[in-house]
Amino acid sequence: MAKVRINIDPTDKILLKRKLNRNGKAQKFFTSEVRRVADPYVPYRQGGLKNIQVQVYDDKIHYKAPYAKKQYYENKGYGNQGTSRGGLRGKQWIPRMWSDKGRDVVKSVANYVGGKRR
Fold first, then answer.
1. 96: which residues sit within 8 A by CB, 6+ positions away?
2. Which residues, including other chains, have CB under 8 Å from residue 8's CB and lie 6 or more apart?
3. For the CA atoms of 14, 15, 18, 22, what is the dihedral angle to 10 degrees?
4. Dihedral in degrees, nearest 10, Cα atoms 79, 81, 84, 87
5. Among 25, 49, 50, 76, which is disulfide-ready with 19 (CB 3.0 to 4.6 Å)?
6. Cα–Cα distance, 71 to 92 (Å, whole number)
7. Predicted TM-score of the model (pTM)
């Protein structure tokens, strides 16, 4: 009977190699990619919410405008390129973007870490 020896790197080393460690480069890339792809979905009147009042962290996106929460839950889509006018901009922009473009985001992150999207 032949002996077979398999050498596998520790999990932490594999994750680090693929940039998948906690708050690593892949997480930062994913968060910035979500913000970039969701940008056309964010309500827009003068640009404050989508351009000035947004801060991207490693693992979250914070819309800092005092009216951001109300816009997120109650926006009627009447603004420039709003949902009521046939556009994309309106309430709950992240889940709507994910429904439309989530596979594209997953593909770009997979490419970034050297993997493939299934």
1. 41, 88, 90
2. none
3. -160
4. -160
5. 25
6. 8
7. 0.82
What are 18's two structure tokens? Answer: 């693929």
- What does the pLDDT look like over 56-103, one tens digit per residue? 998 899 999 999 999 999 999 998 899 999 999 999 999 999 999 999
In tens, the pLDDT along 16-38 reads 777 887 778 889 999 999 999 99
Paired tokens of 88: 């994309």
| Residue from 16, 13, 71, 15 nearest 46 by CA | 71
Q: How open is the CA angle 34-39-40, to the nearest 5 degrees?
A: 125
- CA distances for 38 relative to 18, 75, 97, angstroms: 25, 16, 6
Q: Strand, helix or coil at 61?
A: strand
